[in-house]
Amino acid sequence: MATFFSDLVQFRGLFQMILVLGIGGSFPYGFHISVINYPSVHIRKFINETWIERHGSPLHPETIMLLWSFIVSVYGIGGFLGSLCCGYLTTKYRKKKCQMCTNLIMLVAALFMAFSKTAKSFEMILVGRFLYGIGTGFSLNIHPQYVGEISPKKLRGFTNATVSVFLTLGKLTGQVIGLREILGSEALWPWLLASSGLSALVQLVTLPFFPDSPSYLLIQKGDEEACRKAIRKLWGDGDHQAEIDDIMKEKVAMTSTKTLRVLEVIKERSLRWQLYILMTVMTTLQLCGINAIYFYSFEVFHTAKFEEYLIPYVSLGVGLCECLSSILCSTLIDRFGRKVLLWGGYTLMCSVLALLTMTLSLQHQFFWMHYFSVILIFLFVIFYGIGPSGATISIMVEIFSQSFRPSAFLIVGCINWMGLFVLGMIFPLIVVSDSNWIPPSRLIRF
After folding, report:
1. 278-311 residue pLDDT tens
2. Which run of H or of E encompasses 384?
3. How does pLDDT run across 91-145, given as a tens digit for each residue?
4. Cα–Cα distance between 227 and 244 in angstroms, integer?
């Protein structure tokens, strides 16, 4: 405990920058995954009312469901495009400048959301959601790389895990302010969707006061004095020569290694195993089911026979569990290692899913079974937060050197965002086709 407090004092500049990067980094990504649930009924009603006002007749419920699915999933298309552009732009213009430009995109998206209802245009919601996707596509690539580069080796596992902590904080914040008592009401839902602009504004104002990463200043800029100044500002006074020597060794190694584009990274035989590991952990994270719970948590808990007024609070409990377990992961990752947390987390999650399959199939026979199903969902989220959530991000940052990292993260971003797009489009259709789920006519209440 004494060591923790001494590190907190010495590295206070680092922790302040981690906070600023997190607010505009993975935080908005998590926020937009969870917040879209809360105004879902109001947005579908708004789409139908707008259509009636324009054309004099209502839309078919299936058409409304399709438009709603596209509003959810267009976030993934924007994120995919943002990820595609991020690698090239961050290499050319540096991460700090690109992150500040990302904040401007997020602010424009917030304006589209805020005035969509006033303008009576559901298309503005689509545009705003698309722009949010582009912004988070950039920030989700920049945040883990930036955090990894500004951290000393002894704190790197902890700081990398903070990416998942801020992501889950974003989910939890979206769930809290999405409650009908705060911004989730029919009158205030445009401001709920626009509230993400506040985190972008905070980062836009505060980030200029922090330095570029020491490795960028030394390797890309060749400015050793600026590198030492950045280290003193972030890590405090002390002997940091060993860390500087490590950066120098990486710089020497990079002089004989050119920065590779995506196709060159894929073709490079020496990077083959890193790519296999990267794609395996990222694909597994996408397919584990955690995003489906957040995208369509209302529908998930509806099958568990919960009263509609209770569902937002049950969803809030899920977000709180993931947030606390992610914080726990950040304290355990350097003690137990990434491999143990990954294997242990996924093993427990598989066990929970097997039990959940049984309870869902038996919930019509035993009235108490749906409560057990919800307990299993909470356990699933806790095991995800302690294990794969933080460990996956640490592996992604650490297995590639700085010259290959932008291209590697572009590959990760494409897998992540295409997975989100497919999930957002097909999940509600699966929900409707399954007789255990409620039909769209009950989801869309006018």
Report:
1. 888 888 887 777 766 665 566 667 766 677 777 7
2. helix 369-384
3. 788 889 999 999 999 999 999 999 999 999 999 999 999 999 999 999 988 998 8
4. 8
CA 158/CA 370 separation, integer angstroms: 37
What is the SS3 assignment for 385? helix
User: Helices marked H in 151-271 — which ranges?
Assistant: 156-177, 189-194, 196-206, 214-215, 224-235, 241-255, 262-267
- The pLDDT value given to residue 208: 94
Three-state DSSP class for residue 439: coil
Beta carbons of 286 and 415 less than 8 angstroms apart: yes
CA distances from 432 to 47, 66, 311, 437, 441 (A): 19, 11, 19, 6, 10
Query: What are the structure tokens assigned to 331, written together?
Result: 């304290």
Identify the helix (H) or strand (E) that includes residue 108.
helix 95-114
| DSSP three-state, residue 246 | helix
Report how many helices (DSSP H) and strands (DSSP E) the chain contains, helices first. Answer: 23, 0
Q: What are 74's two structure tokens?
A: 């267009």
Q: What share of the chain is helix, strand, coil (3-state, %, to 5)?
A: 80, 0, 20
Of 278, 261, 276, residue with least CA distance to 394: 278
Residue with tokens 């705060």: 182
Q: Which residue, among 114, 106, 111, has the nearest Cα to 131 in the 3D structure?
A: 106
Tokens matching residue 153 = 């080796």
Query: Rounded distance, CA 213 to CA 125, Å?
Result: 36
CB of 377 within 8 A of CB of 306?
A: no
Over residues 389-439, the pLDDT tens digits come to: 878 878 877 787 766 777 777 887 777 787 777 766 666 666 555 544 443
Tokens describing residue 151: 């951290």
**CA gap 303, 226 in Å, rounded:** 57
User: Residue type for 304, please?
Assistant: A
The helix (run of H) or strand (run of E) holding residue 131 is helix 122-150
Largest separation between any pair of C-alpha atoms in the chain: 73
- Do 155 and 12 meet the contact criterion of CB atoms below 8 Å apart? no
